[in-house]
Structure formats: C-alpha cells, structure tokens
Write a structure and sequence with these properties.
This is Recombinase family protein. Keywords: Coiled coil, DNA recombination, DNA-binding. InterPro entries: DNA_bind_recomb_sf (IPR038109), DNA_bind_recombinase_dom (IPR011109), Resolv_N (IPR006119), Resolvase-like_N_sf (IPR036162), SSR_resolvase (IPR050639). It comes from Corynebacterium curieae. It holds the Pfam family Recombinase. By secondary structure, the protein is α/β, with parallel strands linked by helices. The protein folds into four domains: about 130 residues, 3-Layer(aba) Sandwich (Rossmann fold); about 130 residues, Hect, E3 ligase catalytic domain fold, CATH 3.90.1750.20; about 140 residues, no CATH class; about 50 residues. The protein has 13 helices and 17 strands. It has a five-stranded mixed β-sheet, with helices on both faces. It has a three-stranded mixed β-sheet with strand order 10-16-17, covered by helices on one side. A three-stranded antiparallel β-sheet has the order 11-12-13. A hairpin with a 5-residue loop joins strand 6 and strand 7. The chain is elongated. It starts with a strand and ends with a helix.
C-alpha cells in the first residue's frame, strides 16, 4: 500500500525526535510491512496545538486531489499528528470516512478496532495534558521575567537593545545609535512638529529604522511607524502585562528598560496624538488652511470642499452651518497679509523646557490598577488567591499614599531668540510648511463670506487672524 510519512517537530533542535530519527523509523516500518512510501509530510517548527488540517505540509494531503495519492498515514508517535484530543478525533473521523488507515509506530495503534480507537483517545488526552503543562511553564517563566524586569523576548522597542546580565537572561538598555533618534522624535513631536514632517526629515537624512519588525519597510520611516512608536507605553520603560503595569513590593512600577520619556512628556504626547487624529489627510489632498481655518459662526473646523477629488474653490463648515462657502484663494491671500502685518516683524522664539516633577499620571495608573484588582476579589475562590490579591492591593495602596504626598514642581519654560523674524521664516516656507507653522504656534483663522464674488470681482470676506494670548505677551515683552 501507499504510505504517507508524517514528520513533525515543534523545534528543529529536538534531538530525541529529530527529523532523521522519525524518517528512519517510518522507513523501517514500511519496509518490514512491504509498503511503499510515496510522499513525506514534514512540518518543522510547527506546534502540536495546530490542527493537522491546517499544517503547511500535512494539510494539503488531507484534501483532494492530494488525498488520493496515499493509503496509509504513518507517524512515529500519535503526538506527531496532533496534541489535542479534538483535533486528533477530527483526523480519526476523516481517516474513517475516506477509507484510509492510520498507523502510530510507537503506540502500535490500529484504528480498525474500537480498542485501538479507545487507546488512541487516551494517548491523545495525555498529549493534550503535556501541551497544557508546556504552556503553563512558558507562561510562568514569562511572568517571572516580567516581574524581575528582565526582557521576556518578543519585539525590541525602538531605541533599545538586549544586554546579557550576570544572573542569566537579558535586560533592555539604551541603544547608543537609535536612542538619540528616539529622543529627537519625541522632542520634535512635543514641540509641535507633525509626524509626516518628522518622517520626511528622517528619510532625507537617510536615518534607518534600524530594527527588524519596527516597520514593513525597514529602510523608510512611515507615518504609521512613528505613530506606533509614540503611542507605545514602552516609552515609559514599565514592564506591562495585558496593558497594565507590574508593581514592585514597594508599589513602584517594575522597569523593563530605562524610560525614554517622563510622565509629563508621555501625557503630552498622548494628548497631542488624540487631538490630531481628526486631521489624517493624504499630503497631496491637504488644503493650505486645514486645521487652521474655523467657522465664524460656530467655531468649528472648515474643510476644503471637493468635487471629484479636486478642490472646488471654497471652504465650508464641517458642522453644516448655513452660510456661503469661503473663497479659498481670497482667504489665503488675506491670511498672508495679516500674518506679515501682525507677526512679521517679531523675532521667532524657540521653546526650551526643563521638566519639573508631576506624578499625576503615575498616580492615575496606580489608582486604576487598584480598582481593576479590587474587582477580582469576589472571583477569587481559594485562600491562596485571595491572599495574593490582598498583598497586591496593600502594595498599591502604599504606593498611592507615597504618590499623593509628592510635591508637584512646575515645568520651567524658557524662550530663546533665533535671530530670524516670522516674516523671514514664513516667506521661506511652502504652503504646507506655512500651515504647519500656524498649527505649531497655535494661530487660528476665522472667516466668513459676506457676499459672493464674480469672475472679475472678488466677494467680500471678513477674516481674523487669532494669535494666542500667551504668544502675544511673549512677543510684546521681548526687549
């Protein structure tokens, strides 16, 4: 009869069940029983938890037309086929329905008898128990690594690299090449530079993303790549489990790596990311005043009205206010004039921030974790579980008290002159650069169309350039 030899390994380094050993045993069995091996279904680095119907090599032989090429499926042991009783029974049913035969050399199983099927199910149950035990050991090992602050494997956060430690295993340390790039990204974004501009600058300077897994295109920075980095809690350096921080016995967060941001910086980054999500527009479709122009009547954002993916020539209120569209070229010209008139002669100031101490966000995290853990008390059915929960709650309670007692110190902000006027900076930028400048310094424009224009005569508009009060005071008070 025609034999399909089945070989499977979870890891190619398993010596006792190596590919060569499994192949040798199957060949010996086939020769002893006068059968011919017509094909091999060899899956290496494939878990026994995967259904045999879904495995890369064996799966196709369990479907037509390949299922017509063999008569007997032979494996060294039953767990080479599956380690799950449900999956193994599905395979048994398929074998029976398709008039095939299954042989397990080690267990000497014959599926043609009810005794053989019963034994096969018992063995499959044992194999499933072994798989669960392996999963529990892996989970416990990763839990121990997280609680000790060691790296538990997986993707390495950008800006870091694994470093061996004397007691065994690895921890994450700052990468001397990529961590300065990470800090540059963070500081640029906090200071108002859009993600798209940061990505373009990094690409222009040919700074590689450096680490596999950070981006689908490793040599190019993308908007999504930077967004994921800035939105990752890995920036805090905390060890996390299911999105929640892990705490030491004294209530402080377990650090997996040196933090890249302070809590204040993290809070600002997330607030900025949340505030800018509405303005995700393709660069070639971004209008010159998107995110800057607001409706005179309701204060809502005004969008460039488009027809067949092309600008129609006017801005309309996103909230649907009943008023004429604002002519785009006319309002853009007025903004240019008012910017020169109001801000043009003032010197551009560069913001430098010395971070103070504010543990508000860390306190919030500890309080939320305390609340989450409290909800598990009613579900804890054993004294051991309740004892562990109460110990964690006591640790968190002590940490909350420490955080609440901490004194908050404000950030120290200094504005230093750059030697460049706003007129010079404005005139050197293109339309998109000017839009980003207005957004970065917080300038808004409100406008309304009082009368419609004609081909040779523009309509009447009312336009106001709104400069933030704190910016006015800084510019006026400069000597």
């Amino acid at each position: 009869m025609r034999v399909l030899g089945r070989i499977r390994l979870s890891r190619s380094s398993e010596e006792s069940t190596s590919v060569e050993r499994q192949r040798e045993l199957i060949e010996t069995w086939a020769k002893a029983n006068n059968h011919e091996i017509v094909a091999w279904a060899e899956d290496v680095d494939v878990s026994g938890a995967v259904s045999p119907f879904d495995t890369p090599a064996l799966g196709p032989y369990l479907r037509e037309p390949a299922s017509n090429e063999w008569d007997i499926l032979v494996a060294w042991k039953l767990d080479r086929l599956a380690r799950n009783s449900i999956n193994i029974n599905k395979l048994f049913a398929w074998i029976t329905d398709n008039d095939k035969t299954l042989v397990s050399i080690s267990e000497n199983i014959d599926l043609s008898t009810w005794v053989g099927r019963m034994i096969a199910n018992v063995i499959a149950g044992v194999a499933e128990g072994e798989l669960e035990a392996i999963k529990e050991r892996v989970t416990a090992s990763k839990k121990k690594l997280r609680e000790s602050g060691r790296w538990d494997g997986g993707r390495i956060p950008y800006g870091y690299r694994p470093s061996p430690i004397d007691t065994g295993g690895f921890t994450l340390e700052k990468d001397p090449e990529t961590f300065p790039v990470l800090r540059r990204i963070i500081e640029d974004y906090i200071n108002g530079k859009p993600i798209r501009v940061i990505a373009d600058e990094l690409n222009e300077e040919k700074i590689p993303t450096a680490q596999a897994g950070i981006s689908d295109t490793p040599t190019q920075w993308r908007h999504g790549t930077l967004g994921r980095i800035l939105n990752s809690r890995a920036l805090l350096g905390w060890a996390l489990h299911e999105g929640k921080p892990i705490f030491n016995k004294d209530g402080t967060p377990v650090l997996r790596c040196p933090p890249a941001v302070t809590m204040e910086e993290w809070d600002k980054i997330q607030a900025t990311l949340q505030g800018r999500r509405w303005a995700k527009v393709a660069p070639d479709r971004t209008s010159p005043l998107l995110g800057v122009l607001e409706c005179w009547e309701c204060g809502g954002n005004m969008h460039h009205k488009r027809y067949r993916n092309k600008p129609s020539g006017s801005y309309t209120c996103a909230n649907g206010c009943k008023q004429p569209g604002v002519n785009d070229e006319q309002v853009l010209g007025t903004v240019n004039e008012q910017f020169h008139e109001i801000l043009g002669d003032y010197e551009v100031l560069e913001k430098k921030v010395t971070r103070g101490s504010d543990l508000t966000q860390e306190l919030k995290e500890a309080q939320e974790t305390y609340t989450d853990l409290s909800e598990f008390i009613t579900t804890a059915t054993t004294s051991t579980a309740r004892k562990a929960l109460f110990a964690q709650l006591e640790t968190l309670e002590n940490r909350i008290k420490v955080l609440e007692a901490q004194e908050v110190t404000e950030d120290k902000v200094e504005w230093t002159p750059t030697g460049e006027t706003y007129r010079e900076k404005w005139d050197a930028l293109d339309l998109e650069g000017r839009r980003q400048l207005l957004i970065g310094i917080g300038v808004r424009v409100r406008a309304r169309q009082l009368s419609r224009g004609y081909r040779n005569r523009p309509g009447i508009q009312e336009v106001e350039l709104i400069v933030p009060e704190d910016m006015k005071q800084r510019l006026i008070n400069r000597p």
